[in-house]
Structures are given as structure tokens and as C-alpha cells.
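Predict structure. Chain length: 219.
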Amino acid sequence: MIQFTTWDILRGLLLATRWTVLLSLVSFIGGGTVGAILLFLRIGKNKVARVAVKYFVELFQGTPLLMQLFLAFFGLGLFGIDVPAWLAAGVALILWSSAFLIEIWRGCVEAVAKGQWEASASLGMGYLQQMRYVILPQALRIAVPPTVGFSVQVVKGTALTSIIGFVELSKAGTIITNATFQPFTVYGFVALIYFALCWPLSKSSQILERKLNVAHRGH
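Prediction complete.
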């Protein structure tokens, strides 16, 4: 019988952590890109686009991420299309992330005082100029803390991708547990690694929120 040392267990988990970090980055950056594009449709003047994005957000916020992963992985399989686990995980998490970021950012845009819109309009600015020079710079300051805070949810959300066979940290924990029969040690390390990933992001969100609030009051 093969004997596994504590270092063997930790090394295996750290190797899998690379995929958790990579998937988190792809999901957050991809979700942010999609979310930014859809945000402009959500707050734009085209009613059809606004309603379409609204239903997109409600769909992805109102259904479990686990179900979305299943549909991304198995749904296309019904049509004979073989979808790799990493692709299904990436697509599902990008769409899920974008749905939440749209609403976070929309709330930040709407938090900008109405007088800012009126003042910029009185200067003869068009809608795009208002957004670029007046609204978005202020909304960005408000958006930074909750956006950084949401990244913690993205990291934790990657754990669900193990259900479709993507070998990230939690899936590696299950595999190593089955090989070593040391669940307490393995999942103790898994918990510590997740904490090491998420705590700095959570703390950064709190610090940014305090600093930006102080700066805002200073003005």
C-alpha cells in the first residue's frame, strides 16, 4: 500500500489550486467583460435591449449555479456535441458572474446623484459623453469595493465545477481523500487554501470601501 506524507497531500492540493485560480480569473474577467457590455444595454434607451438583459439577469440569478453547470456540460451533449469540462465550467461561470456584475454596476450607476445628469445635460453633453466624463468615473469609485467582494463568490463558486469532472481544488480533495483515507487532513488543507485565496480579497474589499467612503466624504 502506498504511503502518502502530509507534504504529498499538500503538494497535490497546491497543484490543483492552480486550476481554481485560473478558472476564477477567466470567470471574473470574462464575466466582467460580458457584464460591462450588457450593462450599457441594461441602462440604455432601447427598451427591447433593457428587457432582454433584465430577463438574462433574472434567469442566471434565479437558478442554481449547479444547474447551469449541468446544462452547459450535458445540454449540448444531447445534440452529439462533446463539451470538455473546462469549457463548460468557464462558460457557465462567465455567464453567472456577468449576471451579478451587471446588477452591481447598475446599482452603482444609479447611485450617482440625479443632479450630475442634469448638470452635464445643461452643458450640452450627449448621453455617451455624460456616461464617459461624468457618470462612469463616479460610479467606478462606488463599484470597486462590491466588485472586489464579489470575486470571493467567484472563487468559491469554482468548487461546484467538480460535479462535472473539472479537477480543481475541491475535486482534487475528493480524489486525494479516496487515495489516502485521510479526510480530516485533506479537507483541512482544502479549507485553509480557500481561506488563503478568499480572505485577502474580502479584506481588500473592506479596506477599499472605507478608503473610498472617506474620499467621497472629503469631497
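Summary: Helices lie at 6-42, 47-61, 65-74, 85-111, 114-122, 127-157, 169-180, 183-218.
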